[in-house]
Amino acid sequence: MKVVEPPIQKPISVLLIQDQECVRFGLRLLMESKPQVEVIGEASGYSQALTVIDQNPPDVIFLDHEHGGNCNIDTIPDLLFASKSSRVLVFTGEWDPEAHYRAFGLGAMGLVFKTDPPDVLIKAIEKVHNGEAWIESVTMARMLREMWQSKVRSGENVQPKSSRRNIHRLTEREREVVALIGERLQNKQIADRLFVCEATVRHHLTSIYDKLSIKNRIELALYAYQHGLAKQPLLGGD
């Protein structure tokens, strides 16, 4: 009986954007210690990154975001325009909920912190490459809660708006998916909860984003809290 060999998986190609050479060297060593990842280029800033992308578009653009540095989230739209098949993963050492939320709004697919263990970084690269948004549930919960508290302190209206936009267009199953997004569940967890496959969850999310004119899961979670589609985050202590 002939044994059929499994197809060889092509490594995930990564472009490193970081303005410190020593840090880039360490990140490259870490990533390339895993057979599923291949660093195909490095850049110290935006202009150099565009040159690398033009020569060899990567699967994942690993953007080290630092305020005041050569790398920042404002470049995300241009990077994605230059390489429409790439996905952006933001790497940061700063806790800035507003900036992190904005990064997702600009097109980032994931967020990892410099304090995260190496295996989390590799997992984030894999998830983003597979088309999934990546942000750990604890981080997302803290970010959403702090943003919610900021809205309350500023006196911004956080109650459901009278127009409720296009909520009426959502099906009952789509409302269930939105509520589970509000619980910060990932696609597989949602699929298990609803007894469907992950592809079905992705289909529902695509439809939800289109109906509500929303770009990503974090924006959807905030919208769900604001409009009573999911349980609001606690405003008290931890």
Residue ranges: pLDDT <50 for 5 or more in a row?
158-163
Mean pLDDT: 84
Question: Any idea what the CATH architecture of the largest domain is?
Answer: 3-Layer(aba) Sandwich
Strand arrangement within the widest β-sheet reads 2-1-3-4-5
Distance between the termini: 60 Å
Strand content: 5-15%
Q: How would you name the CATH homologous superfamily of the largest domain?
A: Response regulator
Q: What is the fold named in CATH at topology level of the largest domain? A: Rossmann fold
| Molecular shape | globular
Structural class of the helices, strands and pairings?
Answer: alpha/beta
Count the beta strands.
Answer: 5
Largest sheet: 5 strands, parallel
Helix content: 40-55%
Rg calculated over all Cα atoms: 19 Å
Under the CATH scheme, which class of the largest domain? Alpha Beta
- Which series of helices and strands comes N to C? EHEHEHEHEHHHHHH
Count of alpha and pi helical runs: 10
The tally of structural domains comes to 2
